[in-house]
Design a protein that fits this description.
Layout: E1 4-7, E2 12-14, E3 19-21, E4 28-29, H1 30-33, H2 36-40, H3 43-50, E5 54-57, E6 100-103, E7 110-112, E8 116-117, E9 120-122, E10 135-137, E11 140-164, E12 172-188, E13 203-211, E14 213-214, E15 217-225
Antiparallel strand pairs: 1-4, 1-5, 2-3, 6-15, 7-15, 8-14, 9-13, 10-13, 11-12, 11-13, 11-15
Length: 227
């Protein structure tokens, strides 16, 4: 991991470093020339990267990173924290885990149905169909990360994930994935399966299967903040 910057049309003076990057400058190796403390306190560098005057990359000729993803603690894993717009580029440390959690099926994000299911069927997290009483998603800034499914026999069907306010009020579709002739599947939620609607905090999650399947089960994995 490194920090490489390029100019975008003008010379850039970085006062804290005592020099000017003369345009055009491509992939200047900041991380080779300056240590993490020097980078942290270089306010001019942070400002010019975040406002787009300088482009930054993690590797030479690598992908251009979004300006808002840059953090002055980027080179120091002991100090950097996760935050809005920074998650993909930062290390999650133990001190972050007080507020940032990844919730798997074990706390109860599991839904199932019994017997032969046909057409549209709302799976159950417990006794009631999940469109009536779903699982309350008690996370802020929740992100659906993964959907896993299983069935007694290979089947082809769709899995639809919904959210609502309880009792089926204001139910909205989050996303849909498709199982094709399989007994088990795992879907990482990416651009292939985009979210139809953003996930809101403190809403109920519901799961529907559309198609024919025997004894289906669906588990959901979310990440988000507990506060």
């Amino acid at each position: 991991m490194g920090l490489y910057v390029s100019t975008t049309g003008v010379d850039v003076e970085i006062e804290e470093f005592g020099f000017t990057l003369a345009h055009p400058e491509t992939d200047y190796a900041i991380s080779d020339q300056f240590d993490a403390d020097e980078v942290r306190y270089a306010e001019t560098l942070t400002t010019t990267i975040r406002n787009g005057t300088l482009i930054w990359r993690m590797t030479p000729a690598g992908a251009i990173q979004p300006p808002t993803d840059y953090d002055p603690d980027y080179l120091d894993a002991e100090r950097e924290n996760t935050g809005d717009g920074l998650e993909d580029n930062q290390v999650v440390l133990f001190k972050d885990l007080n507020s940032l959690v990844a919730v798997s099926a074990s706390p109860g994000y599991s839904f199932g149905g019994t017997g032969n299911i046909n057409n549209s069927f709302l799976l159950r997290p417990g006794g009631a169909p999940s469109n009536k009483t779903g699982i309350n998603l008690g996370l802020a800034n929740a992100v659906l990360r993964k959907i896993t499914s299983g069935s007694e026999v290979a089947a082809t069907f769709d899995i639809e994930i919904y959210q609502h306010d309880g009792g089926g009020e204001n139910i909205t579709l989050i996303t849909t994935v498709s199982v094709v002739a399989s007994k088990k599947n795992e879907f990482d939620i990416t651009d292939i399966y985009p979210l139809t609607n953003p996930i809101l905090s403190n809403r109920h999650v519901a799961v529907k299967v559309v198609g024919s399947v025997k004894n289906p089960g669906v588990d959901l994995q979310f990440s988000g903040s507990t506060s």
